[in-house]
Amino acid sequence: TKEIQMRNKKIGIWLNTHPNYGGAHQYNVSMVFMLLEINKKYRNSPHFVFFITNNFWKNYFQNQSDKVEYYFIKINILTKIFSKLSSFNKYLLMMWRNINHFSLFTYKIFYKLNIDYIFATSQHPITYELKINSIAAIHDLMHIYSIDSGFDFIKNYGKAYYNKRQRNIYNIAKYSSLIF
User: Fold this and answer.
1) Do 19 and 25 contact (CB within 8 A), yes or no?
2) For 90-144, what is each residue's pLDDT tens digit?
3) How far is CA 72 from CA 23, 33, 49, 54, 56, in A?
């Protein structure tokens, strides 16, 4: 097990869920609440910077009593295209990891702000697309591996989605510094 020192680090928190995402969104809300509490209670806690993709989170942070540093991220079309292509091939992923810091891509902000770690509370590809240390959460694996539960993942979601999810989990495991 590798110990990661977080004192005085700048940790970017990627929040891309919306209330109608169900359990994944509730998990994010819980994580954000916990992180804000850590910031209040511990003087040497990491500096959290939140990267949000929708108005729910904007309203959430504007209603906080303490000032929260957050950035609204609108993912541009080039970033969407390269991100999608990189999910199919490891060589395209390596190329994408090497070019996404350039100014024409959405992800440049992470490099500009000198983020030490990026933390995605949902299984988002950003944890392996950036050349930044990452902390990732992987959840709901029981849907894939517990056929006995009566839930047939492939039947309900299709083989293509299953394969995409497997590639995503593989890349998170390969590139992340820490996994929850």
Assistant:
1) yes
2) 899 999 999 988 877 888 999 999 999 999 888 888 999 999 999 988 876 655 6
3) 23, 19, 11, 7, 11
- Residues 6 or more apart whose Cβ sits within 8 Å of residue 118: 11, 12, 14, 110, 126, 127, 130, 132, 133, 134, 135
**What is d(CA 175, CA 7) in angstroms, rounded to the nearest whole number?**
22
Question: In whole angstroms, how far apart are CA 20 and each of 17, 24, 25, 40, 41?
Answer: 8, 9, 8, 29, 31
Spatial separation of the C-alpha atoms in residues 96 and 2, rounded to whole Å: 27
Exposed, middle or buried by CB within 10 Å (0-12, 13-18, 19+), for 91?
exposed
